[in-house]
Amino acid sequence: MPSNPFRGATYMLEGLHLITRPGLKRFVIIPLLVNIGVFAGAIWYGLSRFEGALGWMEQQLPSWLHWLDWLLWPVFVLALLIIVFYSFTLVANLIASPFNGLLAEKAEAILTGRSIDEPIDYAKLIKELPVILWDEVKKILYALVWTIPFLILALMVPVIGPLIWFLFTAWMLAVQYSDFPMGNHGLLFRDQRARLRQRRFTALGFGSAAAGLTMIPVLNFVVMPAAVAGATVMWVKVFDDRESR
User: Which residues of the chain have pLDDT under 70?
Assistant: First the structure.
């Protein structure tokens, strides 16, 4: 099968549809609720600390400067929204990583016609949790190492730099989410990247679609599980030598 970026993008869209299937919804809802709980707690803590800082500031400043409260609150809220927007997906990936391998496994079962009625092995999930989280950390470190030169290029070179940055982001998303279906079959991280390079444009098309959907508010909350499911579709249809179709 030739490498095709448009076909890669359709796999991401197939993933959006796939996560609505019975048997997969729990892998979307549970991590999402945990993530929302984590951010709600962090926002509450941040608000309480900010109110305390404002109270201390009011005690130190003369009364005629208390109007600064009305200036600082909008700045704080705006900064909080930006932090939440840009960090939600990263934190969601960490929280959902133990579930994403199971999501990919169940999605592949649907795609290949195998039964998905097998009970979840929660003991195995808990036992493998440190390994799974460490693998997530390795992927983040890999991204950071390559982010620095590409970010400098994006800032220094007009037009071409931002385009290359977007393509780099697309590649990183393809690597990030393909890890789950490929990892289920024992492929090491370096082997996963080698497999993706065999159909580089297909992988870039998939990653570009994921990157584009991430920029859409609200929809970006479900991009992560949809991308895992979509990467599983791509694995089954393109990269799995045994099931290539």
Answer: 1-2, 35, 54, 56-71, 73, 76, 80-96, 114-122, 124-125, 128, 136, 242-245
Per-residue b or e along 150-168, where b marks 16 or more CB atoms closer than 10 Å to that residue's CB = beeebeeeeeebeeebbeb
Q: Compute the distance between CA of residue 30 and CA of residue 98 in angstroms, rounded to an integer.
A: 11
pTM strictly above 0.90: no
- 139 neighbors 175 (Cβ within 8 angstroms): yes
Nearest-5° Cα angle at 142, 141 to 148: 85
Which helix (H) or strand (E) covers residue 206, if one does? Answer: helix 200-214
Contacting residues for 195 by C-beta, under 8 A, at least 6 apart? 178, 182, 187, 239
List, as one string, the DSSP characters of 215-243. Answer: TSTTGGGTHHHHHHHHHHHHIIIII-TTT
pLDDT tens, residue by residue, 70-124: 667 677 677 766 666 556 666 666 666 777 888 898 899 888 876 544 555 667 6
C-beta of residue 232 within 8 angstroms of C-beta of residue 108: yes
Quote the DSSP letter at residue 63: G
- Quote the crossing angle between the two packed helices 223-234 and 25-60, to the nearest 10°: 150
Percent pLDDT > 70 in the chain is: 75
